[in-house]
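Q: what sequence does this backbone want?
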C-alpha cells in the first residue's frame, strides 16, 4: 500500500487548489472577452457608422454593466494564479496544461481589452477615412494630439479643410487642446491657421483663451490672427449645433 507522505499530501492539495482556481477563472475570462468584444465593436464598426462614441456608455447603463466588473475580478484572479504558480514552481510541483492554458487566456483577455482605440483606427484607417463621420473623427484625434492617426486620415483623402459639427478644423482642435506637435504637422501640410469655427473663433483665439502659450506663440510666428466671434455668431452657432445634434441622435 502506498504511503501517504507529506509530499503526496502537498501534491494532492496543490492539485485541488489549481483545479478550483481554473474553474473560478473561466467565467471571469469569458465575461472579460465578451466585454472586450463589445468595446472593440464600439471602437470600430459602430464608430465608423455613427461617428465618435462614448465608449461603453450604453453598455454601462444597462444590464451589461455587470461586465465591467469582470476585468477587475480577472485581475485579482491573475495575481492569485501567478502566486500559486510561483509557489508550485518553487516546490517543484508540476501544473496541468489546463492551468497553463487558463493563465495564458487570462493574460490574453486582459491584453486584448487594453488595446487603445487609436490602434483600431491605425489598423482600419481606410475604413475610418471613408466614414461619413471622418471629419468628426479626425478633428477629435487632432484635439488629442494623435499625429499618426490624423496623418492617416489626411493620407486617405480627408481634406485639411474638413470640419466637425461645430465647424472646427483639425488645426482649430489642435489649438484648443494645446497640441503643438499636431499643429506643427498640420501647418507643414498647409493648414489654414485662421480658419474659424461656427462660433467665429480662430485657432489663435482658442489657444489664448485656453492658456496654451506655446501654441499661441507658434500661431503668431506663422502670421495667424486672433479672431473672436460676435454674440450674433455665437447665438446662431449654438442653435445650429443643437439642431445638428438632434438630427444625429434621430439617425442613430
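A:
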Amino acid at each position: 500500500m502506498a504511503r501517504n507522505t507529506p509530499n503526496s499530501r502537498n501534491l494532492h492539495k496543490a492539485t485541488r487548489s489549481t483545479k478550483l482556481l481554473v474553474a473560478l477563472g473561466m467565467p471571469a475570462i469569458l465575461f472579460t472577452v465578451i466585454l472586450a468584444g463589445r468595446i472593440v465593436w464600439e471602437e470600430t464598426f459602430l464608430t465608423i457608422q455613427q461617428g465618435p462614441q462614448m465608449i461603453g456608455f450604453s453598455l454601462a447603463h444597462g444590464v451589461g454593466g455587470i461586465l465591467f466588473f469582470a476585468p477587475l475580478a480577472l485581475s485579482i484572479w491573475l495575481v492569485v494564479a501567478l502566486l500559486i504558480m510561483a509557489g508550485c514552481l518553487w516546490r517543484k510541483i508540476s501544473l496541468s496544461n489546463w492551468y497553463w492554458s487558463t493563465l495564458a487566456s487570462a493574460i490574453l483577455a486582459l491584453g486584448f481589452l487594453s488595446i487603445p482605440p487609436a490602434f483600431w483606427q491605425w489598423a482600419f484607417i481606410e475604413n475610418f477615412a471613408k466614414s461619413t463621420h471622418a471629419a468628426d473623427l479626425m478633428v477629435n484625434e487632432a484635439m488629442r494630439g494623435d499625429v499618426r492617426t490624423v496623418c492617416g486620415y489626411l493620407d486617405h483623402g480627408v481634406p485639411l479643410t474638413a470640419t466637425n459639427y461645430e465647424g472646427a478644423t483639425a488645426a482649430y482642435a489642435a489649438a484648443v487642446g494645446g497640441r503643438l506637435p499636431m499643429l506643427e504637422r498640420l501647418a507643414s501640410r498647409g493648414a489654414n491657421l485662421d480658419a474659424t469655427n461656427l462660433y467665429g473663433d480662430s485657432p489663435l483665439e482658442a489657444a489664448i483663451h485656453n492658456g496654451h502659450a506655446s501654441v499661441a506663440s507658434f500661431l503668431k510666428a506663422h502670421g495667424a490672427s486672433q479672431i473672436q466671434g460676435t454674440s450674433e455668431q455665437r447665438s446662431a452657432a449654438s442653435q445650429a449645433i443643437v439642431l445638428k445634434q438632434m438630427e444625429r441622435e434621430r439617425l442613430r
